[in-house]
Amino acid sequence: MTMNPFEQNKQQLLHSLTSQVEQEVIDYIRQEMQHNVSDSIPTEDELLAFFQPSDESTKLDAYQQMLSIGKLLEYAEISLRPFCDLIRYCTMSVQPPPALTLLQMHTECPYTV
Q: What is the pLDDT along the chain (113 residues), one digit of tens a residue?
């Protein structure tokens, strides 16, 4: 069964965005690990393998595992915080801070109470 062109383009875009985000996250984790452990930074492939579900053992030691998971959670918090704030301000009908005001100039918030 063949996908229609729209579905193929959607899948290609999704794959491209996923790859880009994975690379950004791995770069962030490695950069932050350099500040804490400058002598033994895992490679990109080792980090990607660690975050993929697998039955094989990881090449990262316990400290690297703990640090990489901590940095992954930190990155998620940094990335999702502005989005969560926007939703909170829209649902609470509160005057948003200046940064969110610029965003709302381009998109109307339909979720005000």
A: 677 888 899 999 999 999 999 999 999 999 999 987 767 899 999 999 999 888 888 899 998 999 999 999 999 988 888 877 777 777 776 555 555 555 554 455 544 43
CB proximity list for 35: less than 8 A, separation 6 or greater: none
Whole-angstrom Cα distance, residue 72 to residue 68? 6
Instruction: Kindly state the tokens that stand for 15.
Output: 């794959």
For residue 72 the two structure tokens come to 């992954």
Q: Residue 102 CA to chain centroid, in angstroms?
A: 23
Whether the CA torsion 107, 108, 111, 112 is positive or negative: it is: positive
Quote the CA–CA distance of 70 and 56 in Å, as a whole number.
22
Place of tokens 């984790």: 29
